[in-house]
Design a protein that fits this description.
The chain is built from two helices and no strands. The protein is mainly α. It has one domain. The longest helix is centred in the middle third of the chain and has 86 residues. The two termini are 42 Å apart.
């Protein structure tokens, strides 16, 4: 029977690639969430400054519009990354199942090969015993079993 080790190695490599891609997506999501948290801190700081400094309060409206637009872009980016994470997680699960399927097939082939080998060894032992019995019969024709 053919060996599946090369195919298993290839599929494991694909599985590793999918794991790396998923890790990169999680890293991107974490980075976007950190950006969102920094933006919220900036907004709070600007609000506090606008409350205490009358001149700054005139520019706050422009800052607030830009901050809201940036918040929306970050939220959209997070949603897109989360969608990609779901797809990557599904692809990873499929790749894992594929590797497992090949590994199980290889294990079954190895089990069958061992079983065939054991069967051949038993046949050889039986044949050797039969030959020895016949020789003893030929050497001592008066002795029966």
């Amino acid at each position: 029977m053919s060996n599946l080790r090369g195919l298993i190695r290839l599929h494991r490599w694909h599985l590793d690639e999918k794991q790396r891609a998923l890790a990169e997506l999680h890293t991107a999501e974490d980075r976007l969430r950190a950006d969102a948290a920094r933006l919220e801190e900036e907004i709070k700081a600007e609000q506090q400054t606008a409350r205490t400094d009358f001149e700054v309060s005139f520019g706050y409206a422009r800052f607030a519009r830009a901050a809201l637009a940036r918040r929306a872009r970050i939220a959209q980016s997070i949603a897109e990354v989360q969608t990609r994470i779901v797809a990557a997680t599904e692809a990873l699960a499929e790749a894992f199942q594929e590797v497992k399927r090949y590994e199980l097939a290889q294990e079954e082939r190895e089990r069958l090969d061992k079983e065939k080998l054991r069967h051949k060894e038993n046949e050889m032992l039986d044949e050797t015993a039969a030959i020895g019995f016949r020789r003893r019969q030929l050497e001592d024709p008066g002795a029966e079993g």
